[in-house]
Amino acid sequence: MPDPDSSPAPPLIPPQFLFRYSFAVQYVARMPRQGKSLLGLPASCAFPNLAALDGPAARAPAGALRLAWNAAGLGVAVEVQGKSQPPRCLPDDPAGSDGLQVWFDTRNTQSIHRASRFCCHFCLLPHGGQGHPAPVVVQRPIARAREEAPADSAGLIRIRAESTARGYLLEAWFPAEALHGFDPEANPRLGFYYALNESELGPQYLSVNSEFPFATDPSLWSTLELTKPRAAGRSP
Asked: What residues in the chain have per-residue pLDDT under 70?
């Protein structure tokens, strides 16, 4: 007889791998903001968490993402909660540090397995390591890319971090100039992937985990649908 206390074996193929995902991204006119808040995104900009597809084995998400866009660029925010330790950030290893990694493809070419010049990868860190409390954004090359994206975009990105009682809030504004090929009118669909590194709470991924080569293979990314406002003057 099977052991009633034994846990079911994990599936050979994770449920997140079985589908292609498309997410609507809300238009927010007033970005970036001046003053304390860089984005101040409303709850309606919340990004879905696909971990629930794991069923009873699903872990509570380490962070909650929000995304929004306008003609000038794209805003991304993540709030991490439930921590008892400060985030671990290593200036010499941004991809291995606590923080949010994001990948964009401004042409959303879902059929390619090697990145084009329209694909880019950024690491967003809540601080720059010991003695460097300011948040940091680092652009990383994508391994095996067929073409290299412009590598000087990190300096154009605005980033803000705020410590909270049990974690941190991280906001980043990607102006159109930082996302090579960003053109919401001609190309309102973007390829997108994220990985939230969290040494204390555990990692969080948009869909498939690190057993899959999402860092180098754009065909594993999802789609952002840049939805247009219904009428001028009615956006948040």
From this structure: 1-19, 51-59, 231-236
Flag whether 12 is in a domain. no
Q: Which domain holds residue 211?
A: 18-47+59-226
Residue 3 covered by a domain: no
Residues 121-157 pLDDT 10s: 999 999 999 889 999 999 999 999 999 999 999 999 9
pTM score: 0.88
CATH number, domain containing residue 114: 2.60.40.1190
CB 194 within 8 A of CB 103: yes
Contact status, residue 219 vs residue 111, Cβ threshold 8 Å: yes
Domains: count for the chain: 1
CA dist., res. 24 & res. 229, Å (int): 12
Angstrom distances, CA of residue 18 to CA of 3, 15, 51, 221? 29, 6, 14, 13
Nearest to 200, CA basis, from 82, 115, 64, 68: 82
- Kindly state whether residue 207 falls inside one of the protein's structural domains: yes
